[in-house]
Amino acid sequence: MRKLMLALAATVAFAGSAFAEPVRISVGSYNLNNLPFPVAQGLGLYEQEGLEVTVENFASGGSKTLQALVAGSTDVAVGFYDHTIQMQSQNKAVVGFVQLARNSGLVLAGGKNATFDPAKPETIKGAKIGITSPGSSSDFFVRYYLQRHNLSADDVSLIGVGSGSAAVAALEQGKIDLLVNYDPAATFIEAKGVGKILVDARSDKGAKEIYGGTYPTSVLYATQDYIDENPETIQKVTNATVKALQWMNNHSAEEIVEKLPKEFISGDRETYIKAVENAKAIFSTDGRFNDEDVKTPLAVLKSFNEKVAAADIDLSKTYTNDFVGKAPHDVAN
């Protein structure tokens, strides 16, 4: 009898996995702006929606994820909202459907020998500046800063160094003078005595000083074609991710780290928990896009991206709240 029960259990488990809906999700990097995605994984929320998620992590930055999405080698991307604006300027329809991070979370940090003084913007000339990758939002951050102070990218050297511990190591080893990056790198820099934060856009106040407004960053996005062809899949992904956002809003940084897949955690655990605590304020609580906030990335891109500046961008086509509006919004425990 026991053998029969085990066989039945195995059959049910196999049937469940056989009927799980496959979806490929790629993530630009394991910086903390993207944290709600691995939290949803760790809580098993995608499985609860009947999804079998295959994950690919492009540690070099979000621009690689965007390329994978446009090429059709992934279904959904965890990347930055401003990429949807870029794609529209190239006549490609990429649409954000869940907002994860409502603010930038970026910092500009200097190494021990850095000579840049934010009070004197011209002192950034000649600096080797680490960014996650060319075409990423950290790249945009630097270019917008330079443009606002009548400088150009030719005045500095922009070097892709990835994110997390690899980015911190590049600063520590003197391969770069300055680093533009997210948490956990931002917290690691000061905790390890590698350098200090010179410009901080993690808070709303800091974001307004840098960008002139709140700057939404990490989102889930897909091509309009995929959304039109797979609305039920998009709804399931949305349901799971919104539950993760609600759960994060009601739990401590330590509890959040407890649920993360091990590969997501970098550095020592206590410092990582501190980084999550520092980053908590940037996360959305409901996944909705704000009609006013999305204007900030457009203004930033227009300042230095000729294609975006020349295009008649319709922001309403770069995001949708339709799926978030249908997601259950009960508080997750």
From TrEMBL:
Residues 1-20 form the signal peptide. Keywords: Signal. This is Transporter substrate-binding domain-containing protein. It comes from the Bacteria. It is found in: Periplasm. Its main location: periplasm. One of its GO terms (biological process) is alkanesulfonate transmembrane transport. Belongs to the bacterial solute-binding protein SsuA/TauA family. Pfam families: NMT1_2. GO terms for cellular component: periplasmic space. The lineage of its organism: Bacteria, Pseudomonadati, Pseudomonadota, Alphaproteobacteria, Hyphomicrobiales.
